[in-house]
## 1
Amino acid sequence: MRINVSNSGLEFSRIVQGMMRLKQWDFSTKEAENFLLKAIDLGVTTFDHADIYGNYTCESLFGEVLKINPSLRNKIQIVTKTGIILPDKEKKRIHYYDTTKSHILESVDRSLNNLHTDHIDLLLIHRPDPLMDPTEIVEAFLELYKQGKVLYFGVSNFTMQQFNTLQSKFSLSLVTNQIELSPYNLDHIQNDNTYFLLEKNINPMIWSPLAGGKIFDASNEKSVKILSALKEVSSEMNVVEIDTVIYAWLLNHPMGAIPISGSGKIERLKNAVNALNIKMPRELWFKIYEAALGHDVP
Ligand code: NAP
């Protein structure tokens, strides 16, 4: 299933494959190619990166696949991010954010080079920067757009105000806000961001839909309670896999979420795709929501 992201003309697969853990998966280039081909067979054609993933290694590992199989490039969409600087003890560098024009331009050039591509489909500002100068970010965005290096722009982890501040200076539309949301983490429902996105007709990309695997942790009291509700819903709906139930819970929200699966196992990506046609009754949606809240709704 495809989605025209926020009606912008940018076409993504409704389920996106996240590449943050690519280094951890320890794939050979051939194995990584195989993973991509299987994802594409499942209809998952959009891949989410950031310059910093795998301590600045994941984009290059992915780029190696495009190097041996360049024909893949026009079958997929690439998202990447900029704005975070990771600490480096040897260089005595601390962890900080940089959303200056020069950093954005340099980081995109590095991403293009690492990914072995001449364009990025969607570039996101990775995290809100307390020193963000929207005018400067917009200058960088427009330069990248005019050069054809980046086709669409968005943000990640932004509040409504931060989104509005950047959008107010930008002549193009920010097409998404990539936010964390799962039954384990309701922050963006509780801070009203989901209502804001609905008002603006913006489809959010959803990171850590399974709370990075934490939702399956039997030693975590909060997870155990949520898991128990998920199991009840799974048996009531005859949906075997718990992760499929979680994806269905996200996809049944009217904001048109675009979940990013972070697993390196193709069977788990299949579980996400299997959620695409599930209609979850409102009462069962609330069963999961109330377990996530830790109490009934008032
Ligand atoms: P996730 O899908 O919530 O978590 C994936 C992790 O959960 C993997 O380690 C996976 O292990 C594990 N897992 C899945 N099913 C499991 C099960 N049944 N039992 C135990 N563990 C299980 O997503 P995520 O990786 O945290 O995030 C997804 C993507 O979002 C990332 O790749 C990245 O692209 C993006 N992201 C963005 C931001 C941002 O700030 N914008 C932040 C974080 C992530 P296996 O590989 O073994 O299945």
Note: The chain has a mean pLDDT of 98.
## 2
Amino acid sequence: MKQADKNIAVLRGDGIGPEVVNEAIKILDVISEKTDLRFNFNNGYIGASAIDKFNHPFPDSTKEICNTSDAILFGAIGDPKYDNNPKAKIRPEDGLLEMRKYLGLYANVRPIKVYESLINASPLKANILDNTDFVVFRELTGGIYFGDKGFDNKNNSAFDTCRYTKDEIVRISHLAFKEAEKRRKLLTLVDKANVLETSRLWRDIVQNISNEYKNVEVEYLFVDNAAMKIITNPSHFDVILTENMFGDIITDEASVITGSLGMLPSASIGDKISLFEPIHGSYPQATGKNIANPMAMILSASMMLDLSFGLKKYSEIIEKSVSDALDNGIVTEDINKEKNYSTTYVGSWISERVKKLL
Ligand code: IPM
Ligand code: MN
């Protein structure tokens, strides 16, 4: 008899999403076989593939699957046929945004970690990158993404509104402070308080909360300045806390300096359920070619084991197996142009390694 059943919603999505999700499932299956854990996978549609099938990017059947699961594994969404069509009525991205709001996934956590064997792939010099290891807490269900917006055909104008409530800022701030306590104890609030009212609210609230975390040093950086510092002195940062739009931009910036977009996982934390997805997108040019890097997805599954199920031991085994794959040159073409392996080969290699280490 298996001791603990975990129900996992599996939303493969578009492009390379399905291929990388399959590799993460290989790893979870190995853990299931060798332990008394059992993972049940419930498949749902999202994004462009859901529009094709249900004419909706986040259909009811997928909502139901998410509502009855313990965690969500998410591949990627997006399809070029929507990107250059500003008049498209439904978009894959709408499904993602609706899902975040519907499930209350309010904190997007993106660890930015540099792998020794990939330092030369970074656009930054190795000495600048040395010791870079930080994590961004991006607010995910508020701000300009979700404020009032509209077109005014008469005046040929359009508007998007950025609005934040105190509660929205408080809950993610506590998560970020708690993380800082476990790390180097430096929290950087990134905002634009010299211009924006919402940023002044963030500063005020974070200043107040900081009284509860006396051992955490807090600094405040304007987002333009932070964008420079992520390039010129990335090892300075420990925990960055920021609102939705700034977080979107600086996490893309932060992810490329590691030289390994295909390596970076993320978690979107909610009160009831959390979602785990790679930072990279649907990479349509690689779809079906068995060349996509599955490591970010595999590491996202590892974050799920730790954060949603409290199985840190297994999450560490997965991380070790991924870094063993890197050290042995078992990598996809994004990491090594000359000598590389397929998505399925890399996934199988890592799952064999996990099996050995369990
Ligand atoms: C991300 C993506 C999304 C965002 C898009 C696809 C809506 O860029 O997850 O960072 O802007 O949040
Ligand atoms: Mn983004």
Note: The longest helix spans residues 17-34.
